[in-house]
Structure formats: C-alpha cells, structure tokens
Amino acid sequence: MTDTPTQLFIGGAWLDAADGATMPVDDPATGEIICHIADAGPKDARLAEAAAVQAQEEWARTAPRARSEILRRAYEIILERSDGLAHLMTAEMGKPLAEARGEVAYAAEFFRWFSEEAVRIDGGGGILPDGRNRMLLSRRPVGPCLLITPWNFPLAMGTRKIGPAIAAGCTMVLKPAPQTPLSSLALAAILQEAGLPDGVLNVVTTSRAGEVCEPLLRGGRIRKLSFTGSTAVGRLLLAQSAEAVVRTSMELGGNAPFIVFEDADLGKAVDGAMLAKMRNMGEACTAANRFFVHHSVAEEFGRRLAERMGALVVGPGTRDGVDVGPLIDRTGRGKVEDLVADAVERGARVLVGGRTPEGPGCFYPPTVLTDVSPESRLMDTEIFGPVAAILTFGDEDEVIPRANDTPWGLVGYVFTEGLERALRVSERLEVGMVGLNTGLVSNPAAPFGGVKQSGLGREGGRVGIDEFLEYQYLAVPVR
Questions:
Q1: What is the pTM assigned to this prediction?
Q2: Same-domain status, 281 and 247
Q3: d(CA 312, CA 102)
Q4: Which residues contact 160 (CB under 8 A, 6 or more apart)?
Q5: Based on the domain organization, do 245 and 270 belong to the same domain?
Q6: What is the CATH number for 365?
Q7: I need a labelling partner for 325 at 20 to 30 A (CA). Which of 144, 277, 455, 465 fits?
Q8: Catalytic residues
Q9: What is the pLDDT of residues 421-452, one digit of tens each?
Q10: Could you tell me which residues come within 8 angstroms of residue 235 by beta carbon, excluding any fewer than 6 positions away?
Q11: Rounded-to-10 torsion of CA 187, 189, 194, 197
C-alpha cells in the first residue's frame, strides 16, 4: 500500500488538492481508515480539464499504432502486478482476493481488446446517388471526456472507459468513486509508466462530486460524458449535460429477472444463480434480483440454492477460504437489511441468512427468501447485496410481463432446455443482454449495456469505441 499514489494526477504530475483537503479511504471489513488521499475541489477540476483540453489536439494526431502499443504495455504491466492490485482492491472495496484477482484479469483484457481496436478505426466512401459528389467518411475522436466510475468494480470500470478513449484518441478527466479511489490512482501510474503522454489521462479524486463535475459538464470544453452508476445520478448528469449538448453514454441500474422454467436443468440453474447473484457479493448492476421459478420446480430450486448459499464463508476478503466479503459501507448494508425486513413483514420466508452478524465491518450473510410478495420493496429496488428473492409462476405468458414490469432493462437470465422457448423468451425480454443457461454475461469482447432506464450506449465489444468517435463527411465533386 505504501507505493500507491494518494494525490491527484493532473497533466502528468501528482498534486495535492489546491485547498489542501484530504479524505479517508476505509476498509469495509474493519471500518478502519486505510489512508488519506487528496480531496479535489472545483479549482482542481478546472486544472484537470485544462490539461485534457491542451493535450487533445496532439493526442488526436498520434498514430493509431502508437496508441495501441501504449494500451498493450499497460495490459502487460497490470498482469505483472496482478497480486498487488488485487490486494489493493480488496482493501478498499472488500471483495475476496480470488474475485479481486479475477477482476484484475478482466480489467486488463479491456486494454488488450482496445489495443487491437485502435488500429481498426475506419471510415467509408463512394459516389453519391446523384452522381455529382464523392462521399468520403472519416472518424475522429469526440474530444476531451469526463469519465465517472463506480466503486463496485473499481479497476475494470476504469479500463472499460479509458481503453476505448485512448484507442479513439480522446483525452480524459477520470473521477472515481470516493469509496474506491486507490485502484484508479494505481491505474494512472501504470499508464504513465506505459508511456501515456502527460494530460491525456487526469484523475481527480473527490468527495465533492457535484462541485467538481457539474461545472465541467456545463462549461462546453468537455465533449463526452461516460458514466456508470445509479439511474438517479444518471438522470441528474443527463440534465447537466444538456446545456452544452455533451455527448453521453450511461450504464445505469438494473433489476435483472432470473427465470427458471419447468424443463430447466436445475443443476445449471443453481450454478447460474450463484454466479448471477453472488458475484461481487451481489453488488453488481447485472445481479439477479427477482427469481421467477416455475411452481413445479420452485421448492427444489429454493432448497438447492439455500444449501449452496448457506455453505458460503463470510469474512474479510484477505482471509483464506472466504467466499463473501463485506458490503461497501454501512449505508449499503442498511439498505439490504431494510429490504429483507420489508419482505419478511409481507410474508416472505427466510430459507437461509437474513440476520446481520455482530462485530466490526459491513458484513451481511447470503440470504434466500421464498414466498416473496410482489408488493415487496425489493421487487422494484436494485438490492445490491447477497439476497435472492424467489417468486413462482405458471406459464410463459404470465412471467414475461412480470419480468418486464420494471423501468430498468439491463440484463435477464433464462434457464430452459427448449431452444424455441429460449429464443422466444429472450426476444420478448426488454433487456439489452440475456444470459441463456448461464449466470455471467460480461465480457470485454461483447457489447455491454441496457435499454429503458438502464442506460444509453454500449461499452466493450467492437461497438465500444464508437462512443468515443464522431463521423466527418467530406463531399468531393466528381469531374
């Protein structure tokens, strides 16, 4: 931890906040303070913006191969330092080391993927229908970007945004979540070591997000916002972006349905449920929230899931054998406690878990609820915790409207052995992604994003770089 930067990264320099302010970074497993870091204010934000704007023109002219090689070197450095980055992530966020190491590999892959996409940016052309002009299409970087990342995947959400921005030729101001800033600062140091020019990436850590971000969005020099976080905050940022017509991409909340039909392989379904629910302690926008299980297999599915959930070991992420770390903070745990209490008051039965353990840290046990009322608050709230709520259904035409009855539409999970039903149900679900007989959809090579109030645009995959590029059309007269 002693080698991890704790200052702002602006214009290639490590700086204290202009007003000298600092903020603590806590370990959610103990509640103890890990360290204090610089707490940026509006003056620091303007300095970071100026550095990004100044660097933009030259960075846009940099050869695609040069941008590609920087990303490739950063990818290799991340893998070389996997263990140290995993320990850092576990310290500030809480996830078990095994999951943290998995995130490091996942994060690195975004840099490798976009290192390959950087050299494949192309345009197009041809004679226009009237025969008078040739059309030449080129693609160019959108310009300086504001990137806002969440705390639940602190390294991967950084690389998923930084990777395509670098590949496209955009400069950036990155504002990480105040709970998990250390992973972003470590990433900035890696990119500097990999040869990223000064000013291309600037990292502003702050507890004063509104004071820092709103002036940048309204000021007119930031041309792109990429945000991952809650739908409520996303709406606010969209409104702030409207004044200067800032281009936006939003990866917002989710309320994923997990549908188990009567012909499902229950072994696969339970395995998928463990992935879809317990990845990152349930603190993921892709987490399965609402388990719709056909009434003929609901009892057996609930029994198997409760058995698996109850066998998980809860504890500090650095301890050997731990499967489930703490939630991010007491506010997050309190929300989970309230949602479970409300469901129980409305008639839900607790098959396993459901009680907050005593002692330090923000721990909550893996919990399975059955006989959950559709009126329960956790049916229309993103739980962000290790709680699986089971409801039953009778047929396909009943469950699809219930699954779609939410303002969110990020991901859905479908378990069935029938191919026709699998395709039919997937097409009827109002989501951007579907996991068919699998509980994991995220992959750097696939487009990640949702519909309705789950966001705008896509990250990752071949289309991920499009969010950072504009088309220019050149008309050339035909002789």
A1: 0.97
A2: no
A3: 18
A4: 107, 110, 444, 448, 459, 460, 464
A5: no
A6: 3.40.309.10
A7: 455
A8: 251, 285
A9: 999 999 999 999 999 999 999 999 999 999 99
A10: none
A11: 110
